[in-house]
UniProtKB/TrEMBL annotation:
GO terms for molecular function: 7S RNA binding; ribosome binding. It comes from Acanthisitta chloris. It comes from the Eukaryota. PANTHER family: SIGNAL RECOGNITION PARTICLE 72, SIGNAL RECOGNITION PARTICLE SUBUNIT SRP72. It is found in: Cytoplasm; Endoplasmic reticulum. The keyword Cell wall biogenesis/degradation does not apply. GO terms for biological process: SRP-dependent cotranslational protein targeting to membrane. This is Signal recognition particle subunit SRP72. InterPro entries: Signal_recog_part_SRP72_RNA-bd, SRP72, SRP72_TPR-like, TPR-like_helical_dom_sf, TPR_rpt.
Length: 644
């Protein structure tokens, strides 16, 4: 037809539709752009916008839809998809609501699914509280989107239940089709399982999450976006460990078409993790390149600058890192607080505590916070700069006083001091008392007591402080203390001692008879004194002999120590040529008649009994040895037989 008539509108329109059905979007768009005079926007606006959408030319598709003279239902459907891809979720939500309200056909379920996807995206990326749309969760897609919305709200347990329900519905719906295999079902369930693993990761169950992530990767799903997200999550679990596995997973995030499947925040998170991985693998140039690229894309974002500073610190360039952070804080005052906290941490790591305190005190919006006050006081105390620590307390208390004054002037009603304000005053008083600033502490304690005259603890502290400075004033204030009668507690001591949780139970006294009873009546109750146990005396103790006063000193330090005596054996060693013997000595033991054999010979029991009266040399006691030495009993080995 086109050979006969090149500009036949119907033939051209049919050819464009055929090319779209075959997936040849580029060729179809070429024909539309070539025949713009014939194929006007009124005739083929939807086909042109759809080709641009499928070719990821989202902005061009939006312009084509908006330039159409008539907004058909098809164009409205495509308009909703385009807005979702552009992450204009509020406009997208309005478009789908209008579609659901004004159309009735077999695609209503798909529109509701898309509507729930928009609500889930708002909850996840924009942290918007999702409204209840009243959608009946009859399909696994609706259950899945509802679970994603719950994850955005932080309701992880509820989200897990929704995902389990979505898994069950998915299996039921797909198993009804006989052509669908188990592998197809698992592939469809991969995205649900991936979200389950993400919840486990958020709950701290990293081992379970990692196992499920790896199972999904083994299935080799065709969705490159799903694979990229799972690979990124595995990298975050690995952190600076298992770096080789992380480098393999990074390749999945670089797959073709990933940038069209994920949101901007997802892509940004992946790029951040790539930069961190480059830092952990000591790829300094790559880390700097990635972080610089991220900073150019998001100049006000904190992470790129923090990554650059961390890389410089790894290279021992702390001064350069602090300079980089200072420049960013000057250019972006809105994010200066977090940057200055990092700078202070670096100064502390270098040992410059005083400079770190100066940086922290420059953060005006955090000066009055209890956590900041506590940190500064601790650091100044470590540096023994008590005046600066007290100044920190004073500035924080003044801030709360000014805030109270502003509140009273605005409300025309007197407002009492806040609990944080009173807590700071008390901590300041305790700190001053601890470091000997009694007069300054007294003024703080008086202010506290003025706020609550019934506070006995504060009054006691005030009296204690005055007793060191002005005893007369302490006596006057002590009259305000409650009497001992009001403080006494009516406690049944016997019941308390006999209670189940008592650690000490008083023994019941037995009946007193005879002399004991008379003693009790005469003397009354007398506290029993613990008898001291007599110390053990040595066995050779003689009470008539005076103990040696130097017995506690080592032998060498005693006055009567004369050194070691020469051994007897040394005197018996013969002197002279080798082999000679001294007179009167006999070294051959076999010639002595009284010496028994050193060990019995086998089969000579009679010989043993004959010589049993003779004590062998090894069993003979040395001269002067005590006769009462106990013999150690030999333990019989288990299963040993008697005899030699």
């Amino acid at each position: 037809v086109l050979q006969i008539s090149k500009d036949d509108v119907t033939a051209l329109q049919c050819k464009v539709v055929c090319l779209i059905q075959n997936g040849n979007f580029k060729e179809a768009l070429g024909i539309i752009n070539t025949h713009t005079k014939v194929l006007t926007s009124d005739i083929i606006a939807f086909e042109k916008a759809y080709c641009e959408y499928r070719l990821n030319r989202i902005e061009s598709a939006l312009k084509t839809i908006q330039s159409a003279s008539q907004q058909t239902d098809k164009l409205k459907e495509l308009y909703g998809q385009v807005l979702y891809r552009l992450e204009r979720y509020d406009d997208c939500l309005a478009a789908y609501r209008d579609l659901i309200r004004n159309s009735q056909d077999e695609y209503e379920e798909e529109r509701k699914t898309n509507l729930s996807a928009v609500v889930a995206a708002q909850s996840t990326w924009e942290k918007v509280m999702p409204e209840d749309l009243g959608l009946r969760e009859a399909t696994y897609e609706l259950c899945y989107n509802s679970a994603c919305a719950l994850i955005g709200q932080g309701k992880l347990n509820e989200a897990m239940k929704k995902l389990q329900k979505a898994e069950e519905l998915c299996r039921q719906s797909l198993s009804e089709d006989s052509d669908v295999t188990e592998e197809d079902i698992e592939a469809e369930l991969a995205i649900i399982h991936g979200q389950m693993a993400y919840i486990m990761q958020l709950q701290g169950r990293t081992e379970d999450a990692l196992q499920l992530y790896n199972q999904i990767i083994k299935l080799k799903p065709t969705d490159v976006g799903l694979l990229a997200v799972i690979a990124n999550n595995i990298i975050t679990i690995n952190k600076d460990q298992n770096v080789f596995d992380s480098k393999k997973k990074v390749k999945l995030t670089n797959a073709e078409g990933v940038e069209h499947k994920l949101s901007k925040k997802q892509l940004q998170a992946i790029e951040f993790n790539k930069a961190l991985l480059a830092m952990y693998t000591n790829q300094a140039d790559q880390c700097r390149k990635l972080s610089a690229s991220l900073q150019s894309q998001s100049p006000e974002h904190l992470l790129p600058v923090l990554i650059q500073a961390a890389q410089l610190c790894r290279e021992k360039q702390h001064a350069k890192a602090i300079g980089l952070l200072q420049d960013f804080a000057d250019q972006h005052p809105a994010n200066a607080a977090e940057i200055k906290l990092t700078m202070a941490q670096l100064k502390i790591a270098q040992g410059s505590v005083t400079k770190a305190c100066m940086i922290l005190r420059s953060i005006e919006e955090l000066q009055h916070k209890p956590g900041m006050v506590s940190a500064l006081v601790t650091m100044y105390s470590h540096e023994e700069d008590i005046d600066s620590a007290i100044e920190v307390f004073t500035q924080a208390i003044q801030w709360y006083q000014q805030f109270q004054a502003r509140t009273n002037s605005d409300c025309f009603v007197f407002q009492p001091k806040s609990p944080v304000h009173l807590s700071l005053i008390r901590e300041a008083a305790n700190f001053k008392l601890k470091h000997g600033r009694k007069k300054e502490a007294i003024s703080d304690l008086e202010e506290l007591w003025k706020q609550n005259p019934k506070d006995v603890h504060t009054l006691a502290q005030l009296i204690s402080a005055y007793s060191l400075v002005d005893p007369e004033k302490a006596k006057v204030l002590s009259k305000h203390l409650p009497s001992s009668d009001t403080l006494s507690l009516k406690v049944d001591v016997d019941a308390l001692e006999n209670s189940h949780g008592a650690t000490y139970v008083r023994k019941k006294a037995g009946k007193l008879t005879g002399d004991n009873q008379q003693k009790e009546q005469g003397q009354g109750e007398v506290k029993k004194k613990k008898k001291k146990k007599k110390g053990k005396l040595p066995k050779n103790y003689d009470p008539k002999v005076t103990p040696d006063p130097e017995r506690w000193l080592p032998m060498r330090e005693r006055s009567y120590y004369r050194g070691r005596k020469k051994g007897k054996k040394k005197d018996q060693v013969g002197k002279g040529t080798q082999g000679s013997t001294t007179a009167g000595s006999e070294l051959d033991a076999s010639r002595t008649a009284s010496s028994p054999p050193t060990s019995p010979r086998p089969g000579s029991a009679a010989a043993v009994s004959a010589t049993s009266n003779v004590i062998p040399p090894r069993h003979q006691k040395p001269a002067g040895a005590p006769a009462t030495k106990k013999k150690q009993q030999q333990k019989k080995k288990k299963g040993a037989k008697g005899g030699w």
